[in-house]
Amino acid sequence: MQNKHSHTNLKLLQTLIFSAVFVLLALSADNKVFASKTANFFQTLPQQSDTLKRDTTKKVMKRSGLDSKLEYYAKDSVTLDRKNEIQYLYGGARVKYQGLELDAEYIRFDAKNKVIFASGVKDDKGKYYGRPIFKTEGQGSSMADSLNYNTETGKGIVSGVFTEQEGGFFSGGRTKMQPDNEFHVHGTTYSTCNLPHPHFGIQITKGIATENHIIAGPVFMKFEDIPMPIGLPFLFFPKPNKRASGVILPTPGEDATRGFSLLGGGYYLAFNDYLDARFTSNIFTNGSYDLNLVSNYTKRYRYNGNLSLAYSSSRNGLEGTPEYEPLKNFNITWSHSQGANAKPGTTFSASVNAGTSSYFRETNAYGTYDPTQALRNTMSSSISYGKVFGDGLFNFTSALTHSQETQNKSINLTLPDVTLNMSTISPFDSKKRVGEAKWYQKLTVGYSMSARNTVSTTEDVLFSKSGLNSFTNFVDHNVPITLPFTLLKYLNFSTNLTYNEKWDFKTIRNRYIRTSTGNGYEVRADTVNGFKRGGQYNMGGSLSTKIYGIKQFKGNGSIRAMRHVITPSIGFSYRPDFSKESYGYFLPAQYYTDDLRPGMSVPTGEYVKDQYGNQLLYSVFMNGGPSAGRSGSINFSMDNNVELKVRDRKDTTGTGERKLAILQGLTFNTGYDFYRQNQKLSPISFSGRSQFTEKLGINFNGQFSPYSVGQVPFTSGTGADQVTTYSYQILDRYIWKDGKLPRLTSFGFSFDYSLNPEAFKKRNENIDEINRQTPTANRTQEQIDQLNAISRDPNAFVDFNIPWNFSFNYRFDYNNTLGRPETRSVTNTLNFSGDFNLTPKWKIQYTSGYDFKAKNLSVTRFSIYRDLHCWDLSASWVPFGQGQSYSIDIRVKASVLQDLKLSKRKGYYTRY
Q: Is 724 in contact with 711 (CB distance < 8 Å)?
């Protein structure tokens, strides 16, 4: 019982310490408020706060008789006191004087003392209106309760100022304007809340703002006009007029496993207007930490990009347990894009995402707690360069590619992948030809070359000696020759001849080792260095046409006409046998003795046979070479499109029509290989789609087998140990000989539907607006993260103007190759997502699905959002499954105070 109370007291103490740290950090967070201010303390007037009805008609300004430098206008009246040299302006007054523009309901100009006074007035109900709106030369507009400005000395006093600066608002208090752009403030509140009485703010008791520095103090936070008891005695910040380096304050948080945390703290380096760097870290009290270095670079009209280097050390258990041992991970990302007109004919781009397989899982997507990213199982990279030359005839590309599977830690690396393509040319055609080309002038020739240096291994072996020696390299050449022409006006005929040549710099020699039971064998491949070339060719042709069928319907029914378009095609191809011994591309497979010692495994003289008793051959090319066996086949295809022309019910004239696609791309395919030993007829495949309504469309595909299924005996062992078993297999017998139709072996069906498509439309419009307002080169990291989250998850965008949304997609798959109950496989899954407004300020989102075969829910996530005007509250919960976790954030909306937030987490890695 005592231990329980001790644990409770400890948790209470930790919470108090955490809260104190949060308050102190929040109070000191105003370095970001002032870090990027311009020279003038007053900058931009917020439109939503300006309730003054501005007169948009043209104002004819007059010059004052007291001072020729003063231009004035008044909607109501102008009074001149020549004795005291004072001019009074009433009702919608406006003056211009030496770069100062001033609008107010009442303005008084004292020419003798060189003082301008402006204020609003009260109406019959006591409402104060017509506040002064002023703007100095080179600066934005500001609003105040009253203004008193000496035009000769440049000094002035502004009461009740309200101005916006880069998303933040200064309100209340008094401001004294001094010469040389120096301002003294007293009792001013800074907040990102745009209300006259903000929900929260940083209260600046006294402060001095110069062109390059801000000195303030004491300062403290206040919520709903209630000051916090803890503050800071003074603050001193540089205020450059350009990007500046500085400290990035961390965000306090708490993780159920790793303890209290300081997230995102670090340092920002602004090298110049084209290059910067940001070093941040996440630090946890259990010893875990994450380090991240991000650099952005840009050169206008030329290129832009960013580079990220991340390292993590994670502890997910209590001290003394195996999980407490640190897990080291790293990740590298690089993105580079070139301007469209930077180098015409030349392109360079990069998209790199590489590192250890467990980085995103162990760091929980670098503290974002995004399950989509934390549970990702693939990574890929590509760095490519391209150039067009020879007056556009040749196109050269070179790429470095990488793909990584995080579950089994496999890596496929290509360094490099080079291609050279030549546009097709007509060697017998003339540029001076007039009229239709002759048949031989239609002949075209092309060329393409592909070269690769690639390796497939695991991440722990890649940089070892054996991993580096595993690279294979080859070059492929391809020369296609085609000759198209038309037969009988409606038949499109085309012939082709293709030559392929393969260059390998490593070949293989296989050794076949019998298994211990003697019923099978194991293949061991030896790599042989040396150049090897192999060439092959094939020829073919195709014939196609279109058949139209139209049916008109009379009467006043909804269906006016139906059109059926059939596109049949037939093709043939022939390829010689390149496995003959004279070519040297294939070697006979023979058994070797089982001896692991180098050079001691020798051939036994016995050759391997296939299931038909023929000698088995294998290719010496590592990455595919010329093909074995003669091939000659005919391919059949038939494409169908069915459309209805129906009456448009939205047309008020009653004569409008619209098209409705019933079947789109319903295609049947099959083929017949004359030289195949058995099952010469290929399976009959089909696919298609249909759009029943504007909101609902379906896709389907499948395959029919033309062969029967029967029991086939299999004998193993010899003598008394000989055993014969029977299994169902596909026979070389057409099924219609048994009086049956072709057997359905696979079928897939899917559709998606949204009950409120306006939600997706609104979401896409907002994404387009963000892209339009913030060019790629100028986006902040927060905007990049938000756009990435929106593109990954449709529910990541929260729009309170859409009261509800529900969408779902369904997929059904059936597979049964043998047509037997024991070989049948059926999967069907339903995924759905949506949201609804519980109140105008509460939004609830959900994403889930159901696997009917596994009888289990897929990854399920609930999110709750609360709009608190200038703050927002968000909570995410994955209640079960591999990514089980929750997170709660309350933060200021404005990015200028993005570090002013509180977070509570429980990651999927939590063990206790």
A: no
Distance CA 20, CA 16 (A): 6
Of 258, 243, 268, which Cα lies nearest the Cα of 290? 258
Instruction: Evaluate whether 188 touches 216 at the Cβ level (below 8 Å).
Output: no
pLDDT in tens, 52-84: 334 444 566 777 767 777 888 888 888 888 888
Burial 500-509 (b: 16+ CB within 10 A, else e): bbbbbebbbe
Q: Please, which residues have CB within 8 angstroms of residue 29's CB and are 6 or more apart in sequence?
A: 249, 897, 899, 900
Secondary-structure percent of the chain, ordered helix, strand, coil, rounded to 5? 10, 55, 35
**H-assigned helices in 52-151:** none
What are the tens digits of pLDDT across the range 624-658?
889 888 899 999 999 999 988 887 776 666 667 88
CB 647 within 8 A of CB 672: no
Contact 886, 877 (CB under 8 A): yes
Residue 364 is inside which H or E element, if any? helix 364-367
Q: Structure tokens of 107?
A: 């303005």
Instruction: Categorise residue 466: left if φ over 0, alpha if ψ from -120 to 50, beta otherwise.
Output: alpha
**DSSP letters along 702-763, please?**
EEEE-EEEEEEEEEES-GGG-EEEEEEEEEEEEGGGGT-PPEEEEEEEEEEEES-HHHHHHH
- Domains defined along the chain, listed by start: 71-238 (2.60.450.10), 480-693 (no CATH), 712-741 (no CATH), 763-773+793-911 (no CATH)
Structure tokens at 849: 């699905």
Up-side HSE of residue 742: CA atoms within 13 Å toward CB? 15
- How far, in Å, are 116, 194, 278, 682 from residue 666 at the CA level? 81, 58, 54, 18
pTM of the model: 0.57
Find how far residue 284's CA is from the centre of its chain: 29
Residue 541 makes CB contacts below 8 A (sequence gap 6+) with 493, 494, 495, 496, 571, 572
DSSP alpha helix (H) spans, 138-185: none
- Here the tokens at position 726 are 């029977």
List C-alpha distances in Å: 381 to 411, 417, 542, 739: 11, 13, 39, 54
CA 778 – CA 304 distance, rounded (Å): 10
Give the separation between CA 797 and CA 777, rounded to whole angstroms.
22
State the residue for tokens 């495994």.
601
Strands 251-255 and 901-906: what pairing? parallel
Pick from 337, 331, 330: which is nearest to 382 by CA? 337
CA–CA separation, 251 vs 264, rounded Å? 6
The CA distance from 512 to 816, in Å, is 33
**Per-residue b/e over 706-733, b at no fewer than 16 CB within 10 Å?**
bbbbeeeeeeeeeeeeeeeeeeeebeee
* Residues in contact with 403: Cβ distance below 8 Å, sequence separation at least 6, in sequence order: 378, 379, 380, 381, 411, 412
Average of per-residue pLDDT values in the chain: 77
- 768 backbone dihedrals φ, ψ, rounded to 5°: -60, -40
pLDDT digits (tens, 9 = 90+) for 341-397: 778 888 888 888 887 877 777 776 655 656 656 666 677 888 889 999 888 899 999
- For residue 111, what are its two tokens? 């020419």
DSSP secondary structure code for residue 628 in this structure:
P
> How far, in Å, CA of 6 to CA of 425, rounded?
85
